[in-house]
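Slide 14.
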Amino acid sequence: MRLQKYLALAGVASRRRAEDLIRAGRVRVNGRVIKVMGVQVEPGQDKVTVDGQPVTGPERKYYLLLFKPAGYVTTVSDPRGRPKVTDLVHGIPARLYPVGRLDYATEGLLLLTNDGELTLRLTHPRYGVTKTYLALVRGIPDANTIQHLRRGVKLEDGPTAPARVNLCRAGKDSALLELTLREGRNREVRRMLAAVGHPVLRLRRIRLAFLTLRGLKPGTYRHLTPHEVERLYRLVGLKK
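Slide 15: predicted structure.
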């Protein structure tokens, strides 16, 4: 098994992050520092350490669907001491990582897991996993603006991919939009809407692929069912 896959399956980090650890010289196999990709290890025979700590091999996988409240960061540590989404999870004997990110002020659906391979694929643009948001915006976008959002918006890091955008409700000076994207750029929804003159007042992710927030309240979570995990695996071309 390739070393980076072994680290991901062991719950050390996502495969991408595991590769960073290897390049940084923080991983040893049988006492030898490894800095290149592709090294093979034999689970149960080779001794693998990260920063001197032994990696015991693949562990039980956990898959949680969390309703992230606003006011939490989706990182496992924060130098500013802000509340973390992992603070909301208790009684799980594994280190969980968020699948993608929701910014501090955004609420909604967030997966947490120690399955590094699934995390990598769910967040990689190649697999086009859909994410749906409800955005309360300032002002009322007209038909041309909606079409602009659907076709793609020029941002500083390039144009956005086509998206599904629908006007759900229009008020006196605000509107509620539903947007479905296949990308996962940093603060993409907020930047798209700001670029067309309708900054976000409130943002919630309501769906990831076929998963929804049904039955959850902010700050609560549930375990995915085996069938849901299997569907996610099939969605990104993995075998369970």
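Speaker note: Residues 226-235 form the longest helix (10 residues).
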